[in-house]
Amino acid sequence: MQTLIIVSHPTLADSNAQRFLWESLPAEGVTWHHLESVYPDGQVDREAEQQQLLQYDRIIFQFPFYWYSSPALLKQWQDVVLTEGFAYGPDGGRLAGKEFGLVLALGVNEREYQAGGREGFTLSELTRPYQAMAKKCGMVYMPAMVVSQFDYLNDSKRKELLVAYQQYVSKDTEASLKTTENWFKIQLQSLGKAGLSEENQQLVEHLIAVLEDNREHLDDLAWTLAQMEGNQLG
Amino acid sequence: MQTLIIVSHPTLADSNAQRFLWESLPAEGVTWHHLESVYPDGQVDREAEQQQLLQYDRIIFQFPFYWYSSPALLKQWQDVVLTEGFAYGPDGGRLAGKEFGLVLALGVNEREYQAGGREGFTLSELTRPYQAMAKKCGMVYMPAMVVSQFDYLNDSKRKELLVAYQQYVSKDTEASLKTTENWFKIQLQSLGKAGLSEENQQLVEHLIAVLEDNREHLDDLAWTLAQMEGNQLG
């Protein structure tokens, strides 16, 4: 899996959180793309950005949560790059099926983002514009990853963060596994219709059956695991 | 009442909707502040913007709804101007009590902004970041004004839009009336404590009583009006 992390931060060098995330990156499969470094004049290159996006399976927006949204340059990137005919609309849908994630760095404790908290709204509410964007582009929206008040985290919490971040940017999700399976199934089924020999058609049907058996087995395991975790907690 | 309309649109001259709104402005009490004209280089002047904000009772953000948010320059404006110590935090709260409005120009029919519609989320959901901003600044959030697919509106609909816009930018709301009354009451009450002569204290108490009577009378009228509208509709 290939992941593109689109980072927007106007003063990246001053951010301990962003430096830590950068140092936590896995060695392979991940590209770090800091917009303010690439475009210091704010002139986003639509063609280059669109071509780049097509090469990745997972697209992540990573930024400090300024006024409940991204810094301005990432918004500019959205408006320039995600055009009708590319991201949506007739002949669009070029990002459909890719995964979309958010890595949000908060200056305020995450607990404040709830009814009655100082910020008053949940992060799920405040990130609706990104959910709507993913929906319009046909992308699979991942639960956001939140880095809350990084400078106050102790070493143990930072190690947890490192692992969580590595997984967020590189680990297959249940959604990506299912997407891959479905992709194989569709490919195999279209093979079956393409005038294969009877022997090969049987092989294809067999492969599809194996995929479906595996999926059932995985779902069973996930269910059992959830029960065990429930028992431990209860 | 003085209203500041902060307009953000990267290609304002090409927008029929924005031209129409500009031509609809009342002659007095409203300032049109187009960010891309004032700051073609994107360098927002914090000090000038903050001083300007203080002179107005109602602040409006007006923009085309690009990717469920504003164009980038308005976001830049928020991040530069609405600083801790001015808009919020210790010694902040300088915008508290002002009214905050949104004028959103949509390229898509407003009906699509609902569960099951093509956009999938309501405008109230998608504008949560502005609601949270108003809350943090202690501003009174007005229901948003929506201009949906302006180019398709006939003359009659455009006339309705003109009136609705003039009212949105200049008419006292129930909230602004109550705010004004409360402001007077607090002023009058603090006068009463400031060692006035007994005669003047009686005058002040009389004025407060008149204000409260007026408010009760207004509330009664509003209730009666709502009943009548209900009967007409039913």
Question: Any descriptors?
Answer:
alpha/beta; 2 domains; 13% strand; 9 helices; Rossmann fold; homodimer; 234 residues
Short structural description:
Two copies of one chain form a homodimer. Helices cover 50% and strands 13% of the residues of chain A.
Verbal overview:
- Chain A is an alpha/beta fold.
- Chain A folds into 2 domains: 3-171, Rossmann fold; 177-233.
- Chain A is 50% helix and 13% strand.
- Chain A contains 9 helices and 6 strands; from the N terminus they run E-H-E-H-H-E-H-E-H-H-E-E-H-H-H.
- In chain A, strands 1, 2, 3, 4, 5 and 6 form a 6-stranded parallel sheet that branches.
- The radius of gyration of chain A is 21 Å and the shape is globular.
- The model of chain A has no long low-confidence stretch (mean pLDDT 90).
- The A-B interface holds A 10, 42, 66-73, 75-76, 78-79, 82, 119-121, 125-126, 128-129, 131-133, 135-136 and B 42, 66-73, 75-76, 78-79, 82, 119-121, 125-126, 128-129, 131-133, 135-136.
- Chains A, B: Residues 1-167 form the Flavodoxin-like fold domain.
- Chains A, B: Keywords: Oxidoreductase.
- Chains A, B: This is Putative NADPH-quinone reductase.
Kindly report the oligomeric state of this protein.
homodimer
Top CATH class of the largest domain in chain A: Alpha Beta
> Sheet with the most strands of chain A?
6 strands, parallel
DSSP strand (E) fraction of chain A? 5-15%
Largest interface: A-B, 27 and 26 residues
CATH architectural group of the largest domain in chain A: 3-Layer(aba) Sandwich
CATH superfamily of the largest domain in chain A: Flavodoxin domain
Distance between the termini of chain A: 36 Å
Question: Mean pLDDT of chain A, nearest integer?
Answer: 90
Structural class of chain A: alpha/beta
Strand segment count of chain A: 6
InterPro entries (chains A, B): Flavodoxin_fold (IPR003680), Flavoprotein-like_sf (IPR029039), KefG/KefF (IPR046980)
Keywords (chains A, B): Oxidoreductase
Organism (chains A, B): Trichococcus patagoniensis
GO molecular function (chains A, B): electron transfer activity; FMN binding; NAD(P)H dehydrogenase (quinone) activity
